[in-house]
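In response to a reviewer's request, we include the raw inputs and outputs for one of the modeled complexes. The two entities were modeled together in a single run.
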Amino acid sequence: MSCVLMLSVSCILWGLGMNEVGWLIMVCAVALLVVMMDCPFNFYILKSEWLGVDEMSVLMVLLCLLVSMMSLVSSTKEVKNGFVVLMSGWSVVEMVMFICLGSVLFFSVCSWMDFFFFFEFSLVPTFFLILKWGYQPERLQAAVFMLLYTVGSSLPLLMSLVYFWSYVKSDNMLLSKMVGGWKDFNMNWPWLIMSLSFLVKLPVYGAHAWLPKAHVEAPLSGSMLLAGVLLKFGGYGLIRLMWFSEVTNSTIVLFVLVFSLWGGVLSSGVCSCQSDLKSLIAYSSIGHMALSLSVLLSFYSVGKMACVCVLYSHGICSPILFSLAANSYEFCQSRSIMLSKGISRIFPVISGVWFFFCILNMGFPPSLNFFSEVYSVGGLLSLQWLLGLMGGLMCLMTGAYCLILYSLVNHGVVSSMVFKPGLNLSYRYLVSSVFGGVLLLGGTLCLDMFFV
Amino acid sequence: MSVSVGAVALSYFFFFLFFFFLMLVSGVLKGSVLVLEWEMSEKFFMEMGFCMVLDWVACMFVLSVLFISGCVSIFSGFYLSHENFLKRFFFLVQLFVLSMILLILFPNYLGLMVGWDGLGVVSFLLVVYYLSSNSLSAGMITALSNRIGDVCFLLVIGLMSSMLSYSMWGVLLMSGFFMGFLMMLGSMTKSAQVPFSAWLPEAMAAPTPVSTLVHSSTLVTAGVYVVIRFSEYLGELEKYLLMVFSMVTMFLAGSSACAEVDMKKVVALSTLSQVGMMMFVISVGANTIAFFHLLVHAFFKALMFMCVGGVIFYSGSCQDARLLGGAWFKLPLTSVLFLFSNLSLMGFPFFSGFYSKELIVGVCLSSNCGFLSFILLVVCLALTACYSIRSIGLVFQDMGLSSLSFYSMENSYYLLSLLLMMNGAVMMSIVMQSLIKEFLAVSFIKGSLFYSLLIMVVVFLFNLVLFFTVSMKTMFLGFSKDFFSSMWFLSLISGNLISVGVLTTISKYINYVEMGWIRTYLWQSGVKNMFMGMSNKVLKINFNMVGLVMFYSFCFLVMVFWW
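The model returned the following structure tokens for the whole complex.
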């Protein structure tokens, strides 16, 4: 019924002359999804032979669609430009849509083999997105890093999923869990090997080298999708893996927890000394993901809720920070912090938006980031007081680098080395920022929806 | 400009009057309380929501904040009259006042964090308002010290999540171990107690209206307010620690204010010592007296900042007190009000500050806080007298160094704000005591002549001793000047040492571990050799005819015979 309503409204509007009906359809689709969110958070429902749904997957699909929308809006320059850079007929838009398609299907399928297929499928358009729209040699290294790290570490996952399929005789997520899953095995070391793939994808600190390189070299939509959606594959995969592999709270899990938490603290520290804006935001992604992983591994129910909340709020906030960094890039043609500074005097509104998202990144109440951070630290504190203290230290360093980021971009006078400043910044970044800001602030009002 | 100033100030006063009327009508002064709760989530077993409480404490504080903000808006119409971006400034000040009011009205940790974080972050923006490198370093140390307090409060929320309630009444249900200590630690960072005191004098890099609003009455008293609200969580050990730290803060601030040369920093240090006194009173147990002193101090300190701001403005924005002077001749209203606010600060009889200080000394005499802490309290009172008289002298005496003689008349905005503030500061004690009966005398002291003269005599003697010490020229004097003027080296430790140490450690770490081990060793030597080496070998096989045939036949055999 709502589909019919949606279609009729968009046809009427198209008839009346409004040309951007596509965005309206997107927004209506998102609204439809949000309405669908009354599915329970502790059941997993099979909608068909291919798709399964619980509240977390609906949330993640929503996140995919929102981030793809925001990245397309922010890269309309590449879309609408007369001089479109094509790669054998495909442009940036098609790559973004492929990644979006792959991600939506990844979060919805209910069979392990399809899960793995879509896990690797979204790497291909990302690879092209990083590699093809530019000619610097660093792009090659960045794309190869990303591909080899992720694919290389997911080979053990493939082997164990194939073995599991042959052992249980079915690879449906729900059915295999009901039959018993891995309960006859001692799942400590096998769990670690299997989750290695997800740990590299959601970058745990030791295996994180691909992320800053990939972010720095990717175009804006690539960075937005990478930070917003592709990192969440790791978190989602870990939650599902924890569910069907009967892993218990043993020393291995504790080891990974402490490793990722300390890695988060280190990467937040590293953030404060970066000289490249995009690299700074990339290291902040590592810190946030580390926090979500460590509270997930505490095996508390609030841990899973806080993990999903961190994934979601980071997935909205980080792409917008990337789009603001691209905004600075348009202004002075460089990502370096020495050149892109002092915009508070010339672009007050964009400076305000920078401030808003910097403090949202550090967890400013009453936004969704705040609740995710609070319950992450709270969950860690309930497990062990020292872990909570480390979580607090990470919040401190997060606050430090967010304020450093803000003051690097906004303070002082415009650098005298910028010869031809581009003074025509378009408002498309502001539109997506406002959208994201409304989502993050309004998310507090429907907190039950995000505490999955 | 006058339209925006007038609009902003009028809106503050309107809200003030509205709130005042509402308060009188609703019977808050007779003890009724309005509690509104907004449940946000039902996923957890406990009450998770924003809980707004309107009792007489909240009402009085909101009223004073609104009144002072109104006066400060008029004052900034004068002080920042040459500013291009005045609307932006007013927007920031309004955000700040909004955060403060949210902090006051929501004594529930989830709602309080909105105001708390907002205060920290908006005060960062206000301190870096003049976009210079000096203000950036000041803003950074302000924001990072406040962030430490935020982290402590986050840990308190984490602890409270297992204790069934986030509000100030939660102690009735369940109370955890470290909650009081962490809460106190967080409030200490916001109220700039030792060891977090370095940010308050540095934050004087902000424009003077910001200092008037933020650093005299609202930001630093936010920590005290939180401790007053949640004072049931403090146990014996926490109160003892609070007493020690607040004592040290009072002594530090008092002694540093006697040696400081920047006029605004002197006033900031006097704020610091008064906030230390408030914390001291809370540690002894008298929350109401601390709250009374908080409100009264807010008014006369704001007045003092405004007077100092006027003197600085008319001396051509020179903040160095060695070059100021001669206000007695040119700025009569300013000098009179500066004198009044300083006398109030010292506790001169029947001014505003007298009533609250009398109550403080009374409660300290009648409680069991120990002989040494009482002696230190009197020493701090003596130091207060010392630096107050010094600052009066600095501002009034005409050294012939200032450009005060070039302005002919005081600005009308300035006069209006001073007049409004004057009524607030001088008579505020009596007004409050008549409105709220809890502020009247709460302890009974044996009123013999000995005790009433004791403090005056000790103060006088101490200052005499100080005077004779300072006028001797010894080598000790050089060291003690450095010691006191840099706040017992605290500003150097908190600022330079920590930040330089941390940043150089991180840079070295990046060099060795990030770029070295992780990128180079793991990737370039390790994984890359593994993968690329393997593919190189396979490619080499494929280029040789014999190797090609052997490789493909081997694959064929494996696939056929194993599957």
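As requested, we also summarize the result in words. Chain B touches chain A through 54 residues (CB under 8 Å). The two ends of chain B are 85 Å apart (CA to CA).
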